[in-house]
Amino acid sequence: MTSRRSFLSKSVLGALAISDSQFIKNAFSGLNRSRSASLPMVIATWDNRKATQAAWDVLHTNGRALDAVEAGARIPEADPNDTSVGYGGFPDRDGHVTLDACIMDEFGMAGSVCFLEHIMHPISVARRVMEKTPHVMLVGEGALQFALEEGFEKTNLLTDTAREAWEKWKVKSEYKPVINIERHDTIGILALDKQNRIAGACTTSGMAFKMRGRVGDSPIIGAGMFADNEVGAAACSGLGEILLRTLGCYQVVEEMRRGAHPQKAAETTIRRIVQKYPEICQKNQVGFVVIDVKGRHGAYAIHPGFNFALYQNEQNLVFESDSHFKK
Ligand code: SD4
């Protein structure tokens, strides 16, 4: 089992492989400082440093964790080059971009949208569901109707690049619901603000070329993200079907409730998932990012290749996650 210290050194080694010398310097000073966890902090799946920066801009001026995670999630949602989230996301197999997102605040309130089309910022619609309705989740046409009523604009989310990728895929039309082990950019983002308020968000266009109507883990509270102000929070990226069957993020938070460090909580949950679905896990990736209310963090994946961005102690760094299967 990986200790926190060896995890951190692996993280830095991983970071060395993907960075320039300035970044290396930052990574080492980040390692030294992160032994004394400090607030605020924000963590995100993958190298989403632009998102953690946007979140930090809220946090360091004494802002609320909920505002921070929403601001962070909106960055990849609006980025046409991010083909797994929001605008520019790869469409389903019929050529429609359909989006899933969820958000939770420090009171344990939650909002979610699934199978939402034509709206660039599903995370903000999810927040409105949480704050302006007595419900947790709206889907499809109902979610779109609500978004329009709330003043969100209808946008064409299918970029030329995404359309071309879909046209290419259509030549074979091979339906393979596999989340590859390589990079895939769904953002799960968690923050703890200076007043110890926790929040989390998750947003995605889901699996590329999925069946129409398919919804993954990302908008499901407890599967793609879970936050509990008394314990901590977890978010993930990877094959939604595994996370839906196991409520992966809820499991991670419950491990912490029983006293586990965020790193151990992520490792235990991944091990359990691999034991339960050994064959599916051979070819599919799942990666967790985790924080607790003490400002400690963890990350763990099934396979190598998962990384995460952490902004804490004034430094915005990317780290390579440790994994169950090794290189
Ligand atoms: C899904 N969990 O829809 C998402 C995909 C993902 O990184 O996380 N990709 O299954």
Shape: globular
Question: Could you describe the largest sheet, including whether it forms a barrel?
Answer: 8 strands, mixed
Strand order of the largest sheet: 4-3-2-6-5-1-11-12
Q: Note the beta-strand portion.
A: 15-25%
Please tally the β strands and state the result. Answer: 13
Q: List bound small molecules.
A: N-hydroxy-L-asparagine
CATH superfamily placement: (Glycosyl)asparaginase
Structural class label: alpha+beta
Cα-based radius of gyration, to the nearest Å = 18 Å
Stretches where pLDDT is under 50 for at least 5 consecutive residues are 1-36
Please name the CATH architecture.
4-Layer Sandwich
CATH class: Alpha Beta
H/E element order: HHEHHEEHEHHEEEEHHHHEEEEE
The total tally of domains equals 1
- The total count of helices amounts to 11
Helical amount: 25-40%
Taking the alpha carbons of the first and last residues, their distance comes to 16 Å
> CATH fold name, please?
Glutamine Phosphoribosylpyrophosphate, subunit 1, domain 1
